[in-house]
C-alpha cells in the first residue's frame, strides 16, 4: 500500500500542470508527501524528546518491550532455529546482567541475533523479539521506534549499542576470504604432483569447496548455491576456483580423478568428499549440515 | 555423433542412452530424466565448449533403486555417475540427482 501512496505525489504535479483548475483532489494526495517524510527518518534518540507524547499515533505492530518474553540466546547456530524466528521484526539484546544493550531491526531476526552472538558473546546473552507481519519498512521502523521510546522513557537512557557513534553492533561487512590457489602460476614447474597438493589441501582444512568461479562471484548456479549454503551455515571454509587456469591449471581433471567425482562443485569436509550441490542441498534441508561441520 | 541409427536419431539421444544405462545398472523402479541444458546455455563453461551447442549437457535425474539401500548419498551419486561414465566423458556436463530407495518414497 505504502508504495502506491508514495507514487501518487509523483504523478500529481504533472496532472496539475495540465489542469490547474481541477485541483480539488490533488491536495489531499500531495499532502502525504511532507507528512510521510516527517514520520520516520528523523527519530531523535535524545532522552528529552520522549517526554513529548507520541504525536503520530501509529499502532505498533509488536507487543511492548516490557510485555515481551525474554529468551536466552542459544550458543550454537543449530539451536537458534526453532527458538528464534527467521522473520522480519525487531529485537532487543540483553547482556548477562539483564541490561538492554541494543535494539535492532532485521529481515531475519534469528540470523541477526546469531551474528551478534558470534561477534559479541558477552553482550548478547538473551533477547526479546517482536515479529512484524507487515513487511513494510515504515511499520518495521515504527516498531523499532516504539521499543526505543519505551526503553528511553523507562530508564532515561538510550541503549548503549544504539548511541550515535557506537558501531559495536553494526554489522561488519562480511569479509570474504580470498580463494585459495593451488599453484604459484601456470608456468611454474610443480615440485609436488597436483594430486598431492589437493590431498594436503583437503586434509589440512576442515571445509573446502571446489567451485566454478570465485566465492564472491561464482560462475555457475550450482557453485553459487553451495557458497550460499556454506555462508548461511556460518561455516569457515576455503574455496578453490577450478576455472582459474592461471593458478589452478589442470585442477579439474586431477580433482575428478582424486575424488572419483565427475562434476563440480565438490565439497570436502575433514578430507572426505561430502558431495556436490545436490547432496549439500539435501543435507541442509534435512538439517544435517550443522552436525557435519561441527565435528 | 549419431550416424549409426540413420533415421532413428532420436533413439540415440543422450537422454535415451542414459535411460538404458541407468536402467541396466541400477534396476530403477522410477527413472525420470529431464534435459535442462537450455537453462545453462549461457554459462561460462558451456560457452567455452563448442561441442555443447546442441544441448544435452545438463540433466535432472530422479532415480529410485533398491540398490541404493544402505548407501550414503555420496555412494548413490557415484553409482549414478559410474553408470554414466561414458556420457560424462563425451560432453555430459552436470547432473542434478535425486537418488532414493523404494522405501524412502514408499509412504507417499
From TrEMBL, chain A:
Pfam families: Glutaredoxin
An annotated Gene Ontology molecular function: 2 iron, 2 sulfur cluster binding
Region ranges (Disordered): 155-178
InterPro entries for the chain: GIY-YIG_AtGrxS16 (IPR049620), Glutaredoxin (IPR002109), GRX_PICOT-like (IPR033658), Monothiol_GRX-rel (IPR004480), Thioredoxin-like_sf (IPR036249)
CDD domains: GIY-YIG_AtGrxS16, GRX_PICOT_like
Top-rank taxon: Eukaryota
UniProt xrefs under Gene3D superfamilies: Glutaredoxin (3.40.30.10)
A GO CC annotation given for this chain: mitochondrial matrix
Location of the Glutaredoxin domain: 207-273
Keyword field: 2Fe-2S, Iron, Iron-sulfur, Metal-binding, Redox-active center
Family the UniProt entry places it in: Belongs to the glutaredoxin family. CGFS subfamily.
Identification of the protein by name: 2Fe-2S transfer protein 13
Source organism: Prunus persica var. persica
From TrEMBL, chain B:
InterPro entries the record matches: BolA, BolA-like_sf
GO biological process: iron-sulfur cluster assembly
Chief localisation class: plastid
Any single Pfam family the record assigns to this protein: BolA
Subcellular location: Plastid, Chloroplast
GO cellular component terms attached to this protein's record: chloroplast
Keywords associated with the record: Chloroplast, Plastid, Transit peptide
Family: Belongs to the BolA/IbaG family.
Name of the protein this chain belongs to: SufE-like protein 1 chloroplastic/mitochondrial
